[in-house]
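This part of the workshop introduces the protein records we will be handling. To make this concrete, we reproduce a full record directly below.
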Amino acid sequence: NIAQFRDVFNLFIVLMAAFMLYIHALTLRWNLGYTDFGMSRAMLPAMGIVHNVVGNVFIADVVTDGAAEVSKGKGLGKALDKPKAFPPLAIQMIQVGEQSGNLEEMLGKVADVFEKEVETTTMRLTAMVEPIMVLLMAGIVLFIVLAICLPIFEMNQLVK
């Protein structure tokens, strides 16, 4: 599947991998954590919502497989514990939340931690891109100046 290969490849790009994992962990939390487990909302329908909302075929497949495992009685943390799908810290925090009986509260803490990570990573990437953009713009300006000035200098040489 080309879409799945593309999405897996996007997760492994060196600079963007951590950022994408944090975003998907936040998506998982926003869709699972804001559903009210105590008020008759079941985890499986919530995981179905996550599957439809996540926007990454690889992560959606992991969530679907996780939902199947949860329906068989496996814990959410163990069901989502796939290599390179979610940050290990998120999985560990979900497992602790399940064991302590405070999954919803722990999902909130997961969101808080990864929201700060996303913000920090965004600031770092922006700080890294700014000098590259300045150099790129300087190169474009230099090319335009040389494209205009070199013919003038060559014509000046011909006159002499």
Notes: Residues 103-159 form the longest helix (57 residues). Residues 9 and 73 are 31 Å apart (CA to CA). Residues 36-41 have pLDDT under 50 and may be disordered. The chain is about 80% helix and 0% strand.
